[in-house]
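Chains adopt folds. We examine one example:
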Amino acid sequence: MEPCAYTAKVMRILIRGVAVIPRPETGVIPKADVVIEGRRFAAVAVGEEVSGPFDRIVEGEGKLLIPGLVNAHTHLAMTLFRGLAQDRPLMDWLEKEVWPREKRLTGEIVHWFSLLGLVEMIRAGTTAFADMYFFMEEVAEAVEKAGVRALLSYGIIAPTPERIEPELKKAEAFAREWEGKAEGRIRTALSPHAPYTCGPEVWKKAVGLAKELRIPIHTHLAETKEEVERFQAQTGRSPVEWLEELGVFGVPTLAAHGVHLSEKDIEILAAHGVHVAHCPTSNLKLACGIAPVVEMLKGGVNVCLGTDGAGSAGDLNMVEEMRLAALLAKVKTGDPQALSAPEALGLATWRGAVALGWGKDLGTIEPGRRADGVMIRLDQAHLFPDHDLLANLVYAAKGSEVDSVFVDGRFLLLAGELQTLDEEEVLARCRELAKKFR
């Protein structure tokens, strides 16, 4: 199936009689008419007649409309490694299982397994994501075809001096080529993988290049206790302190994980406006620990949510991440009121949009904002009764209830049917390619 191209005509769409969560903190509007004009929301009308004509009318009765979910950290093509080398510590998993296999990757493999990840994410309500990996041109082409929104970056791994220039050149070439492509749905970043895989020279050059290109940095930070303790023993500083000294936080920075942070680390991150992508499932599966989400939020850090790659997380389900984030915060603090359902939804929507650089355009359903949204079927046993639809969304939903997904007013999933991707073709190609990695 060929992707559905944007039409030159400005489409006017009515979603009629739908329950809406315009912003997590304002709760649920039980019934509204939502109007989309072109790529933006034009109206959220309650108790008033909306005038036509409309190019398309979508019936919203029995459904809940929420802002598009934002996956702020993943490695899309690692769907290839789902089910391989499970139940291992992070560094053992990476060094013995993942990195050797990644040497066998090709552009074709990355492209098709990126499409597989996109099928999965769209079906579970993700409309935007941040990705760091290899063969990123192939990832970008998959994103363009699927119609989603993404912050993309080549993952720089340069532990030795001879790797520095080649890695930086790949990262720069990709950023220059793809920034602003796909009608502005693709943005780029620079991604030194982590403080333990890239030395100070790499970071300094990456910062200079990021400033020149006016793009952010996306990296891994303080994921395991062992990593942080080893780094402190070698440098006398925490990874956060070390990056601050190098001037890394002088450019917008998205840091994944942030599991093992001191009070001083949190103060530094807040002072520099660093965004932290909390990845509950991956951190649990690899026994990394529970990130201090409540402490970060109280300290002024913008915390968002990510799945990490399917190799470590198992799936790419942002609905599941919301639930886990809320539950883990309560366990870690001993406070059942910690990270309420509205706050958890905020992590998965507007906070993620801010972290990816789209905070002025995405994350809420309000006139003038980009029309990225997700419609969820409410006729599910596990969503009855509907005392509190927002609470049900966070604590009871599975992701499989997603009925329709749209980005810039264009439906990527409509009534359960993918509109831009051929799921059967993707599954067939991935099934064949995966045989080479068993």
